[in-house]
Amino acid sequence: DARVTQTPRHKVTEMGQEVTMRCQPILGHNTVFWYRQTMMQGLELLAYFRNRAPLDDSGMPKDRFSAEMPDATLATLKIQPSEPRDSAVYFCASGWGLVAVLQETQYFGPGTRLLVL
Amino acid sequence: GENVEQHPSTLSVQEGDSAVIKCTYSDSASNYFPWYKQELGKGPQLIIDIRSNVGEKKDQRIAVTLNKTAKHFSLHITETQPEDSAVYFCAAEDWPGTYKYIFGTGTRLKVLA
User: 20 to 30 A Cα–Cα from A30, which one of A86, A97, A100, B113?
Assistant: First the structure.
């Protein structure tokens, strides 16, 4: 049963520290998404990649957030420096798609629950 | 860009009754509409989806209907069970081919035993 995996599942850190979240997409998927979920804002798209190239990161605060895909099996989301307002659940999702082709499903990971004190 | 509105925000039903959640979208070019179920402490899981060339789709107790003219789609759960209690999100494709979804704000469904 192929699944998206995320590490760590929980992270508590102090304001100003660097946070790195990792995601392993489903093997064969070429699109990876990072979402943030809070009670106030719901599910927000932060960034997404296709074939490891960033396609859109307009939802991400550029000054402190960065997202990369070092290889096809790993996506990372970094926050430096972290702030209390970054406390949220961060989800990675993966899927397979081609531009102008019918949409395929996004499969979500279990999330990383981040608390910044 | 696309905008998706979802109603109601909370819904309580008796076990065995039906539940209906409705979403409207703004971009008539959207072609794909998935529904996700999120249980406490877990990531959203796809439960059903529909494409614009289909008006209705069923999977056991779950069905989705799409009205492209009115730009709304609905999730129907029949014979509800306590394990159906969760938050349900609708979504619509942002622009055809972008592979981005715009999510609704969620409906917290509580099935009372």
Answer: A86
